């Protein structure tokens, strides 16, 4: 995404409308020009800021895409928080999260397991494995 630099040297995204990319300098030529002008340090700061901004935007887009696989994006965001342990740190249990989204605790745990797999995270010590969940279902069914 093209950037416009303000006086405070802060990157501001610029919308691309009718931009002639053939006139856009290569990164190498921009670096050489900055080096010749004695502004290579400023060039590197701007480049680093641009790369960081792009990484942040891509991360947010990926998380939003993962959250959209569930009943609602808000549920997806809460699942991300739960899988990463943030919800627990904030004092929220899976029961309160399940109630917020109108589903059972078991359904919440299944969705949490699905989100954990989507994110590629390993199970924590507090998460039950499939065999333990099945045993718990059988035990609860007998009651």
Approximate shape = elongated
Radius of gyration: 24 Å
Count of DSSP-assigned helices: 7
Order of helices and strands: EEHHHHHHH
Average per-residue pLDDT, rounded, comes to 81
Strand content: under 5%
| Helical/strand content category | mainly alpha
Low-pLDDT sequence parts: 1-5
Give, in spatial order, the strands making up the sheet with the most strands. 1-2
Q: Number of domains in the coordinates?
A: 2
Number of E strands:
2
Helix share bin: 55-70%
The main β sheet shows up as: 2 strands, antiparallel
What is the end-to-end distance? 60 Å
Describe this structure in words.
The chain has 2 domains: 3-62, no CATH class; 69-142, no CATH class. It has helices at residues 27-37, 40-67, 73-84, 86-89, 94-100, 105-119, 130-142; strands spanning 3-5, 11-13. Helix content is 63%, strand content 4%. Strands 1-2 form a two-stranded antiparallel sheet. It has 143 residues and is mostly helical. The chain is elongated, with a radius of gyration of 24 Å. A hairpin with a 5-residue loop joins β1 and β2. Mean pLDDT is 81; it is low at 1-5.
């Amino acid at each position: 995404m093209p950037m416009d630099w303000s006086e405070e040297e802060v990157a501001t995204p610029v919308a691309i409308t009718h931009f002639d990319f053939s006139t856009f300098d290569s990164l190498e030529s921009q670096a050489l020009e900055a080096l010749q002008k004695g502004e290579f340090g400023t060039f590197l700061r701007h480049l680093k800021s641009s790369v960081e901004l792009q990484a942040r935007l891509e991360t947010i887009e990926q998380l939003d895409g993962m959250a959209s696989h569930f009943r609602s994006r808000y549920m997806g965001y809460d699942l991300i928080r739960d899988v990463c342990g943030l919800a627990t740190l904030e004092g929220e249990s899976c029961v309160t999260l399940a109630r917020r989204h109108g589903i059972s605790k078991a359904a919440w745990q299944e969705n949490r397991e699905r989100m954990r797999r989507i994110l590629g995270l390993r199970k924590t010590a507090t998460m039950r494995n499939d065999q333990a969940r099945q045993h718990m279902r059988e035990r609860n069914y007998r009651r």
